[in-house]
């Protein structure tokens, strides 16, 4: 043994496979523990060619070779694919992307290169490299390219190589920008892929897609034994309990789930260790010289500042990372407390996914006593009220997420007035007004005043006249498809010879419903709201029994103006040319209610699902709001018991 081998090295230590495996196990937890069948799938790696992403690629390559039973987020992994994004913003980027892909293949990984398309910018006579919002635009296009590629690869786990130094730069940038402690949490270890909100199967959707594929998805189907037991229980419960004829049954819509999750397993490692990993294993990486230009991006300016100057101790890496950890812990505790409040008080009374309505009942907080002369007690009451308002605002935001059509939830600061309206006992004002309807984030809050409490009905707010109606074009053909009264529906042989096309990718309508269709005729279909001027012709086209069923369903599930926020499938016929084009709409179906004109199923099929929601908040019952009989059935509490329960909850809060 040479003497150089005995000399201790004080430089950065390469990352071992044990450390990397432990980081993966701590990060990639089970997403769907109820799954019964989980077949091996691939994972995706976002590889830029830098030292951080190449080190991650090497670690995954070595781990897959040494551990054949590697499991990540419910699925056994049988391979990894590195996705290289060519931004096409500088000369030689295509050659560099090809070199990165070749290096990934030498490590035993699959590789694919995706080029960003800037034709929509160049067609307007602009240079993409000179855009004022270049960084944000490139980020959006990059995430959408990554998401669509993962969808084609059927990979639900996407790994990024952000490291500890990236975390430090991010928190420092947000600190200099004046962010609060919520913004100082920095980069999250795991989150849903951003900027892909309208891509089905990418953002919080696609799990329940039962379309036949070469590699099936997760299976939630119960075993044969469980199915037999369910039939026995359902048969016993249904005996002697026929449903009332005045309330037709409406099959609840499925709610979406799944989507692509981004994991960052290297956030706990310094960049020096990533460099040491590549150097020790002779892994080649590629430096992007644009990262050295301090005038290009804010992050580059921060990096130049850290290299050229010695920052104060409070702005150095250990202090900033400690600040990030404290902010993350504080936010985590607040989220947990808001979730406990939602579960303990069973705020969600009823949710209807077919129309997107929610009935909630908020807890009755105990109002603080009159202001004390002692400053300590007064400050304590003020801090307690401020804390309750914050937790309640977080809970309200989760309730808004059920109904809102907006892609981004409102900030907590914008919900201050909402807290005052829903819980006036937490408001500092002394003159309390009766509950009134109001709207926020596209959600209308309507009070349902009862004898002992006030519930709130959350519905989609009416569409403002100043904005266009939400519309989705599902198909675009020059020929106009048949209406229900056309001869094609009277000739089954003609339709039978027609070739059914495959299901089209579902599209997000109004931020709430995912809708897709399948046709055997060329036609143009649009998704628009259930417009009042089309209601009467649609009812007249239905059979008598189906017409009665529609009226009863709308009366029970979508009363008043709520029905005009439902998605409706229209056939579109355009006539004329140029600026004199006229469009004729024919209402064919209400997809979320499963009601359509007769004969429609012979030439078009549709499928509707509601967006992803927090299902853990459904089906909860307050302990004090129901008494349990000896046989296990529940009955409604008396008025005295309800008043006693309300008093106990107030004292508990």
Walk me through this protein's architecture.
By secondary structure, this protein is α+β, with helices and mostly antiparallel strands. The protein folds into 3 domains: 11-29 and 39-208 and 257-331, HUPs (Rossmann fold); 345-461, no CATH class; 472-615, no CATH class. The chain is 34% helix and 17% strand. The protein is built from 17 helices and 22 strands. Helix 7 (164-176) crosses helix 10 and helix 11 packs across helix 12. Mean pLDDT is 85; it is low at 1-7, 210-216, 238-243, 476-496, 627-642 and 648-653.
What fold name goes in the CATH topology slot of the largest domain?
A: Rossmann fold
The tally of strands reads 22
Distance between the termini: 71 Å
CATH class of the largest domain: Alpha Beta
Rg for CA atoms: 29 Å
Low-pLDDT stretches: 1-7, 210-216, 238-243, 476-496, 627-642, 648-653
Overall geometric form: globular
Task: Report the total helices.
Answer: 17
CATH architect. name of the largest domain: 3-Layer(aba) Sandwich
Mean pLDDT across residues: 85
Quick one: biggest sheet? Answer: 7 strands, mixed
Strand % is 15-25%
Describe how the helices and strands are arranged.
Layout: H1 3-6, H2 17-27, E1 41-46, H3 51-66, E2 71-72, E3 75-86, H4 93-106, E4 110-115, H5 119-122, H6 134-153, E5 157-159, H7 164-176, E6 190-192, H8 224-238, E7 261-263, H9 271-280, H10 298-308, H11 317-344, E8 348-352, E9 357-360, H12 375-403, H13 416-422, E10 438-440, E11 443-449, E12 454-460, E13 472-473, H14 492-497, E14 507-509, E15 513-519, E16 525-529, H15 535-540, H16 544-557, E17 567-575, E18 582-590, E19 595-596, E20 604-610, E21 627-628, E22 634-635, H17 639-652
């Amino acid at each position: 043994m040479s003497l150089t081998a005995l000399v201790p090295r004080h430089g950065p230590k390469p990352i071992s496979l044990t450390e990397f495996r432990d980081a993966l196990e701590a990060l990639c937890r089970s997403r769907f523990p109820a799954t019964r069948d989980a077949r091996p799938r691939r994972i995706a790696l976002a590889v830029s060619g830098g030292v951080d992403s190449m080190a991650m690629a090497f670690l995954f390559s070595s781990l897959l070779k040494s551990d054949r039973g590697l499991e990540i987020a419910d699925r056994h992994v049988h391979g990894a694919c590195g996705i290289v994004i060519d931004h096409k913003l500088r000369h030689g980027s295509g050659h560099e992307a090809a070199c990165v892909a070749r290096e990934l293949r030498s490590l035993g990984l699959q590789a694919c290169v995706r080029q960003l398309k800037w034709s929509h910018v160049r067609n307007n006579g602009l240079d993409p490299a000179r855009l004022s919002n270049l960084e944000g635009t490139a980020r959006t296009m990059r995430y959408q390219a990554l998401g669509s590629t993962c969808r084609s690869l059927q990979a639900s786990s996407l790994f990024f190589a952000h490291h500890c130094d990236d975390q430090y730069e991010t928190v420092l940038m947000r600190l200099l920008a004046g962010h609060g402690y919520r913004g100082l949490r920095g980069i999250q270890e795991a989150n849903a892929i951003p900027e892909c909100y309208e891509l089905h199967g990418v953002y919080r959707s696609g799990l329940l897609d039962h379309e036949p594929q070469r590699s099936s998805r997760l299976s939630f189907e119960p075993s044969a034994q469980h199915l037999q037991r369910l039939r026995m229980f359902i048969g016993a419960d249904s005996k002697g309990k026929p449903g009332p004829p005045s309330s037709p049954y409406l099959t609840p819509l499925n709610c979406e789930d799944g989507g692509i999750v981004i994991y960052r397993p290297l956030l706990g490692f310094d960049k020096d260790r990533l460099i040491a990993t590549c150097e020790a294993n002779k892994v080649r990486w590629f430096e992007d010289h644009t990262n050295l230009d301090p005038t290009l991006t804010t992050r580059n300016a921060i990096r130049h500042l850290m290299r050229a100057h010695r920052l104060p101790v409070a702005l150095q890496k250990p202090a900033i990372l400690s600040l990030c950890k404290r902010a993350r812990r504080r936010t985590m505790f607040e989220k947990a407390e808001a979730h406990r409040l939602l579960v303990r008080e069973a705020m969600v009374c009823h949710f209807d996914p077919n129309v997107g309505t929610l009935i909630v009942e908020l807890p009755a907080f105990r109002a603080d006593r009159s202001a004390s002369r002692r400053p300590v007690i007064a400050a304590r009451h003020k801090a307690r009220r401020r804390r309750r308002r914050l937790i309640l605002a977080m809970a309200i935001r989760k309730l808004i997420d059920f109904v809102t059509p907006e892609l981004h939830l409102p900030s907590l600061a914008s919900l201050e007035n909402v807290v005052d309206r829903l819980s006036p006992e937490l408001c500092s004002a002394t003159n309390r007004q009766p509950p009134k309807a109001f709207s926020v984030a596209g959600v209308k809050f309507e009070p349902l005043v009862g004898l002992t409490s006030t519930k709130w009905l959350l519905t989609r707010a009416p569409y403002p006249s100043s904005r266009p109606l939400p519309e989705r074009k599902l198909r675009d053909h020059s020929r106009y498809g048949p209406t229900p009264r056309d001869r094609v529906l009277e000739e089954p042989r003609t339709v039978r010879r027609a070739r059914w096309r495959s299901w089209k990718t579902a599209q997000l309508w109004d931020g709430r419903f995912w809708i897709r269709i399948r046709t055997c005729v060329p036609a143009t279909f649009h998704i628009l709201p259930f417009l009042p001027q089309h209601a009467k012709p649609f009812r007249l086209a239905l059979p008598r029994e189906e017409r009665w069923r529609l009226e009863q369903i709308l009366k029970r599930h979508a009363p008043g103006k709520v029905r005009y926020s439902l998605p409706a499938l229209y056939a579109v016929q355009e006539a004329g040319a140029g600026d004199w084009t006229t469009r004729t709409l024919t209402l064919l179906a209400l997809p979320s209610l499963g009601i359509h004109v007769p004969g429609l199923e012979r030439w078009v099929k549709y499928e509707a699902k509601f967006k992803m929601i927090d299902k853990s908040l459904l089906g909860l019952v307050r302990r004090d709001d129901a008494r349990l009989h000896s046989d296990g059935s529940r009955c409604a509490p008396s008025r005295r018991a309800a008043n006693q329960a309300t008093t106990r909850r107030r004292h508990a809060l």
